[in-house]
Amino acid sequence: MTDQTTSLDELNARSREVFRRVVEGYLESGLPVGSRTLTRTLSEKVSAATIRNVMQDLEHLGLLDSPHISAGRIPTQQGLRMFVDGLLEVGDLDGQDRARIDQTLGSNDDDVGTLLDRVGSALSGVTHGASLVLTPKHEAPIRHVEFVSLAADRALVVLVFADGHVENRVFTPPPGQTPSSMREATNFINAVAEGRTLSELGAAIAREVKARRQEIDALAQELIDSGAALWENKGESTERLIVRGRGNLITDEDEADLDRIRSLFDDLERKRDIANFLELTETGEGVRIFIGSENKLFSLSGSSLVVSPYMNADRKIIGAVGVIGPTRLNYGRIVPIVDYTAQLVGKLISDRG
User: Fold this and answer.
1) Of 40, 97, 273, 295, which residue has the fewest beta carbons closer than 10 angstroms?
2) Angle at the Cα of 343 (from 339 to 345), degrees rounded to 5?
3) How far does Cα 137 stand from its chain's mean position?
4) What pLDDT is recorded for position 327?
């Protein structure tokens, strides 16, 4: 159970209904919902002042926010997550939406690339959002990998496989990457990639990250045992080695160890970033909803992502389809559309053998 679910359980019936009505009103209109609007729709008759008090309580819980002093309320990211997890009512796929998707994907004569282009167009057209289509992973050994920076938040990876297959993929790199770090990633991956599939390459980089982590721990432990240093926030992204009594305790050999630890930390961070480059989608069946900063790819734009993996005939996840839009997406409608499209794509690819 998460804290968000516990918060929902702690709401009384009135608070829960006010919260649900505010979120539903916001998702429908994109505008703050005021207390007077709610007095006309709540199942029990209560005053606007009573509703304002409930909304203030919900705001203190971090579930609602007031964008302007005199305006109504909108849900926070935490509130949207709680609504999606506990109160969202997902309907059946609308017959008209189903027909449009079936019509767009009805032809099975095209190659997989063309089919997936049609998937993207279908999802964009039906949902009026941006579509996301992750193509089936190609499991032949890799001959060469090249990363090219296109902009601060966009990069291209070119994958050349041993069987002659070439793939170009545009992706959002981890924050803070530069053309220079892209070249480093390219050089490192090509040094370990040849003869390995993408899956094997990911495992190899994970081993490299673990080895660097162990080296750092072993060196740091020597300094800590001698009283020269201590860990702060060990294991977290903000971890650092604090050196104490530098003038009295640190010897020339300790200084060399510290320099090596710094170098190892830099190397570890690069390898972590490279591992992030290779992550395409998380495993697990079913539709997943990422709201705002929950999704690293779109955290800065405040967008939501509704995504579902699709599988081959062996029930192995080979790709994913999704819709990107504002956080006030009509989740109840989008979820069944994405789910149906993913199942349909999996079936069409499986039918091709």
Assistant:
1) 40
2) 115
3) 19
4) 85
CATH tag, 95-137+281-351: 3.30.450.40
Residue whose structure tokens are 């409930």:
54
Summarize pLDDT for 90-135 with one digit per residue, the tens. 888 989 999 988 887 766 656 777 888 888 888 888 988 888 887 7
Q: What is the pLDDT of residues 71-93, one digit of tens each?
A: 789 999 899 999 998 888 888 89
Number of other residues whose CB lies within 10 A of the CB of residue 327 = 20
Please say whether the dihedral angle defined by the alpha carbons of residues 347, 348, 351 and 353, taken in this order, is positive or negative. Answer: negative
Looking at the chain, the domain(s) classified CATH 3.30.450.40 span 95-137+281-351
User: Which string of b and e fits 250-271 if b means at least 16 CB within 10 Å?
Assistant: beeebeebbeebeebbebbbbb
Q: Per CATH, the architecture of 3-86 is what?
A: Orthogonal Bundle (1.10)
